[in-house]
Write a structure and sequence with these properties.
- 2 copies of one chain form a homodimer.
- Helices cover 39% and strands 15% of the residues of chain A.
- The first copy, chain A, has helices at 12-15, 68-81, 94-106, 121-129, 141-154, 165-171, 173-182, 197-211, 231-234, 256-266, 275-286, 298-308, 330-335, 347-354, and strands spanning 38-40, 53-58, 86-90, 109-115, 133-137, 158-159, 188-192, 220-226, 269-273, 317-322, 341-343.
- Chain A has a 6-stranded mixed β-sheet, with helices on both faces. The first copy, chain A, has a 4-stranded parallel β-sheet with strand order 5-4-3-6, sandwiched between helices.
- In chain A, helix 3 (94-106) runs parallel beside helix 4 (121-129) and helix 11 (275-286) crosses helix 12 (298-308).
- Chain A is globular.
- Chain A starts with 11 loop residues before the first helix and ends with a helix.
- At the A-B interface, helix 3, strand 4, helix 4, strand 5 and helix 5 of A face helix 3, strand 4, helix 4, strand 5 and helix 5 of B.
- Strand 5 (133-137) of chain A pairs parallel with strand 11 (341-343) of chain B, so a sheet runs across the interface.
């Protein structure tokens, strides 16, 4: 008898090699990242009319719990191929987790700089467990990025922030998967904007699939910054960016120009949402069973904002990228929820508390 | 041009329907769980000889971060099909996270009982965010289980602990995937044993694939309890089980008899490992880039213990189930790692600290 055939996914470098810079097979450093599910939004209460199809690209199911793995497999593999023994990055958390994990996997050392007290607990635990040398900077991401750039120029260590060109190459594979899973390119693609690499990468992926004739249309790229950390929307770098969405707390994005280009070429927008709107969307997603980190919810918050402006038509297909898993930031989840109740292990008391 | 074809995985009920109890399609509650990767162990230093092939079934990449999703999609879908409006469970954390998420997805209420102060932070955040009614019991898992069993008999609420028969049906699909990914059944399958449902479910899955002619051999089932919480090994329930591996801190397992049967029928063993051995394996996995929760590492700790006894032969294929993602328990990760260093955002100081 023939059972459902499933196969072991080979990671984005081996699965999409015809679309990516070549890597020698014995240099490939992979944790079988990618192939994340596209999950349907079911109802969201009365928020959206039924003619609208909204899908969540749930990138939290990558090995280290965020989309960063797609770019990190490329960057660390190329570093290994080129004979590098160490990688370095600045990070709001997800990049450092991915860098630490892939460096460990590939037998390289990892050095990460993070803003002290400003990265979510889960992410810190990852960099530490994977054996990276972690330096907490008494400053913000933008300051840390300046330092790691200089260090990588002075010492034999490969920079794996998204200015490393291989990072965005890997990240564009998420757009390929969206097209493959839907069978076509969506009408709109919504995503959070922090360092602005991901909107750049997705746009590149969508364009390449269209150029090669895999798809015959392109989505409008819809990027959303957090209000307290919205340099592109405001038109100037933000010196002290602030938002609860720590993953996008970035005041001077590396891919600023390319993000604007993605918006312009696709006929999309780059806009912003407030922390309240982000937390509202974050809770809404959890009530549909999908737990993401707060920054991820900026994409759905963007959909809600645009829906109020009436831009969508019946039959439109909308994809929201959820960049990281909710487990990355348990503290914000707990602060956003009702407190548990405590009881003695006694049937009558429990029944009463449960409200039966 | 033809691009690599990837498709959107449909979740275990729809993918393996010929092997599972029937569910009406409009009752299926899914987050597209399953299809988790099988990741090769690369070296583990000098621990293992090269002829041994060890694979990690990385169940932390299910939607809620643990293998429990496979059973919960079945249990909640059947509850919905039967007209139930609420589910209840006792949990050391992973079950409550899955119950809360799938109940939210299906539009059912969830009630969860957890041992106070004894579940990992990530898991607590999940139950809370997904809107479950959470009661922390001043007692242990075993006491909580007795209470929820009684509540489910007295009130209209479906019990979704693993004594719910649909749970293990869903969980057996992990064995199907292992066989599909390898192309054959492994020689040995190692896994942690807590409530003993998973070893029971895997064994059922392996047997069904062989009966239907998909595979032509069966693995030896190798279950490992934690030393301070090892009722099956010691031959009697443990009143106050203790271990750092909170997910398997269970003194009176529901599937005790079936676990022993799986061991006996397969010619395997049920043994135990110490907390030190668990933490050693936990760190070793992270140094290969794979972050799991402490309980998960009991499987690899078991492999190390058996390797010392010399039971493996050249060419043996060993699969270890890693039951949950490391992000479930950030506190244990941080306690098990070197502390980060703190520095002013100044190039010279950072270079010095990094040791260049």
């Amino acid at each position: 008898m023939q059972a459902t055939k499933t196969r072991n996914w080979n990671g984005v470098i081996r699965e999409f090699q015809e679309f990516l810079p070549k890597v020698k097979d014995d240099s490939v450093v992979t944790l079988r990242e990618g192939n994340t599910p596209l999950i349907e939004v079911l109802t969201m209460g009365e928020l959206f009319e039924r003619g609208l199809k909204i899908f969540l690209k749930y990138e939290g199911l990558n090995p280290t719990g965020s989309f960063k793995d797609r770019g990190m497999t490329m960057a660390v593999s190329k570093a290994k191929e080129e004979g590098s023994h160490a990688v370095i990055c600045a990070s709001t958390g997800n990049t450092s987790a991915a860098a630490a994990a892939y460096a460990a996997r590939g037998g390289l050392r990892a050095y990460v700089l993070i803003p002290e007290g400003k990265i979510a607990l889960g992410k810190l635990s990852q960099a530490m467990m994977h054996g990276a040398k972690v330096v907490q900077i008494q400053g913000n991401f933008d300051e840390a990025l300046i330092i790691v750039k200089e260090v990588s120029m002075m010492y034999p260590v490969t920079l794996v922030n998204s200015i490393n060109p291989y990072r965005l190459e890997g990240q564009k594979t998420a757009a390929f998967e969206v097209c493959n899973h839907l069978g076509f390119a969506p009408t709109y693609h919504f995503l959070p904007v922090g360092n602005a690499g991901n909107i750049t990468a997705y746009w590149r992926g969508y364009k390449e699939f269209k150029e090669r004739g895999v798809t015959d249309s392109l989505p409008k790229m819809m990027g959303f910054e957090a209000e307290g950390s919205a340099p592109i929307v405001r038109g100037h770098p933000i010196k002290n960016p602030e938002t609860i969405a720590s993953a996008i707390r970035i005041g001077n994005p590396s891919s600023w120009e390319n993000a604007v280009k993605a918006k312009d070429e696709s006929g999309g927008i780059i806009d912003m949402v407030s922390d309240d709107e982000i937390i509202y969307a974050y809770k809404l997603l959890a009530r549909e069973g999908v737990f993401c980190e707060p920054a991820s919810a900026a994409s759905l918050a963007g959909v809600i904002k645009m829906h109020k402006k009436g831009i969508f038509k019946n039959g439109d297909t909308i994809v929201c990228t959820l960049t990281g898993h909710g487990l990355k930031d348990p503290d914000t989840a707990i602060k956003s929820s009702d407190k548990p109740i405590t009881a003695e292990p006694e049937l009558g008391k429990v029944v009463e508390l449960l409200g039966f």
